[in-house]
Amino acid sequence: MPEKGIYLKFTENSLIFRDMSNKAVIYFSRNGSTKGAAALLARRLEAELIELTPERKTGFLRSGYMASRKKRVGLEGDPWAQCRDKELLVLGSPVWAGNGTPAVNAFLDKADLKDKRVYLYLFQADPKLGSAPGVLEYLKGRVENAGGTVAGTLALHGASPGKTAPEEQYRSQLESWEIEG
Ligand SMILES: Cc1cc2nc3c(=O)[nH]c(=O)nc-3n(C[C@H](O)[C@H](O)[C@H](O)COP(=O)(O)O)c2cc1C
Predict the structure, then answer these.
(1) Is the pTM of this model over 0.70?
(2) Angle of CA points 156, 161, 165, to nearest 5°
(3) How far does the centroid of ligand 1 lie from the alpha carbon of residue 160, in Å?
(4) What fold, for 22-175?
């Protein structure tokens, strides 16, 4: 059996797809910057890529309001089951209204992160990354409450709302981000 990668298992009457990687990059992204970084990280770490998808999309103002109140949204699928067997998680979010995002809040509400090492990264429009320390502190507290350990954090400059940061803008920062697999 391979140590990592996807493999197929044939049983009497079913075909089971399994991902043997013990790492996952899990993220929410509205305009693609956090998503682009997640794809690069997943490739580098040979990690499973898990997107948090809200059941309903909210408009700009409502999104900002919900984020500022640290609210959550319903998520499609079962991202909690997808990262149950992982030992290392990289969790990515944009900053919204000086906070994290409702999708990431929803994930953390039900996540069991016991014995998991978690790396956090953020994107925000403000090039001075003014909100990032506070948001990272908040997310760190939530990870720890869920039993996990935060092993590293990274704040990145994204794009203005509605725009997507080009990969060249953050690629080298991601490549030099130390993540112990
Ligand atoms: C609803 C909303 C609120 C935002 N609030 C902030 C903010 O408070 N500070 C900031 O620097 N950027 C803010 N942004 C900009 C995003 O953080 C930025 O566009 C980021 O690159 C988005 O990542 P994404 O492309 O993965 O969605 C906001 C964007 C949206 C949609």
Answers:
(1) yes
(2) 45
(3) 7
(4) Rossmann fold (3.40.50)
